[in-house]
Design goal:
Elements lengths: L1 H7 L11 H10 L8 H10 L7 H27 L2 H18 L11 H17 L3 H16 L6 H15 L4 H27 L2 H6 L15 H37 L1
Helix pairs in contact: 1-4, 1-5, 1-11, 2-3, 4-5, 4-6, 5-11, 6-7, 6-8, 7-8, 7-9, 8-9
């Protein structure tokens, strides 16, 4: 409970300024013309069909994405250790750190958090247990990562390397290793094709969306003063709001300790 409170603490209720948040909201509204983060923007578009097309709804979605991503790791920790209190404590502490340090807006970063977490946990689980089904999960998550944030495609070959290492670690035969290594890229490609079709109607339309006028990104040294200003403003706001979250965590740990005797 303390972790979930932390995950939503400090959600800004004010209007967005001229900057990333306004731009990312426009990307959500026009997701088909924003290929660099199309899946993340599509998820934001779907989400806004429920609470409405507001900046506040996107801020809440950023918090939901963060809570789910940290939750995936915390559930994996619990399944490995069986220690519920420790896992819940890690969940809450991680969310407090995230809320105190990260920009709280919905964009192609926060929109891919959940896919990043699933891929990481699937790879860790495969390395530990050698279950080939985890390779398929990692492959689907990797495809989602790439379409939610195109630069994340760099992790696809890295995951392939970990899959190979897992095969070696668990003594897979040459045949099983070859099948597992072949299944990974095939699943990544198949998943990407399905997602591209879902997003644009066809993979060809998705590729066609990579037009110069649709590729807006990057920062320059001229942005540094604005970054420093935003870090100061957001840092103060987060510290003000994080206090009740930290208090809730301490209270949860105290009462859990009292109940356990």
């Amino acid at each position: 409970a303390a972790g979930c409170v932390a995950g939503f603490s400090g959600v800004n209720l004010g209007m967005p300024g001229a900057g990333d948040e306004s731009y990312q909201a426009l990307c959500v509204a026009d997701y088909r013309n924003n290929p660099l983060g199309m899946l993340a923007f599509y998820i934001g578009h779907l989400w806004q069909q429920l609470p409405g097309e507001t900046i506040l709804s996107l801020r809440c979605l950023a918090s939901i994405s963060t809570v789910l991503a940290v939750g995936v790791g915390s559930v994996y920790l619990y399944r490995r250790t069986g220690k519920a209190l420790m896992s819940a404590g890690v969940f809450a502490i991680c969310l407090i750190v995230v809320r105190a340090s990260a920009f709280q807006l919905y964009n192609w970063d926060s929109g891919s958090y959940l896919f990043d977490a699933v891929a990481l946990v699937a790879v860790a689980s495969f390395l530990r247990g050698g279950d080939p089904r985890k390779v398929f999960i990692a492959a689907v998550a990797a495809a989602c990562m790439a379409l939610a944030r195109v630069p994340s495609a760099v992790f696809i070959p890295i995951i392939f390397g970990f899959v190979w290492a897992g095969c070696r670690r668990h003594g897979f035969s040459t045949r099983d290793t070859a099948l597992t290594l072949a299944a990974y890229p095939v699943t990544v490609i198949a998943s990407a094709l399905v997602l591209a079709t879902l997003l644009c109607g066809s993979p060809a339309e998705y590729i066609a969306s990579f037009r110069p006028e649709n590729l807006v990104g990057g920062h320059s040294p001229a942005d540094l003063p604005e970054w420093i200003k935003r870090i100061g403003e957001l840092g103060y706001n987060q510290l003000v709001w994080i206090t009740p979250s930290a208090a809730a965590l301490m209270a949860a740990l105290f009462f859990s300790r009292m109940r356990s005797g």
